[in-house]
Amino acid sequence: AQSVTQLDSHVSVSEGTPVLLRCNYSSSYSPSLFWYVQHPNKGLQLLLKYTSAATLVKGINGFEAEFKKSETSFHLTKPSAHMSDAAEYFCVTVSGGYNKLIFGAGTRLAVHP
Amino acid sequence: DAGVIQSPRHEVTEMGQEVTLRCKPISGHNSLFWYRQTMMRGLELLIYFNNNVPIDDSGMPEDRFSAKMPNASFSTLKIQPSEPRDSAVYFCASSGTGTQPQHFGDGTRLSIL
Question: Which residue in chain B is spatially nearest to A107 when comparing CA positions?
Answer without folding.
Answer: B42
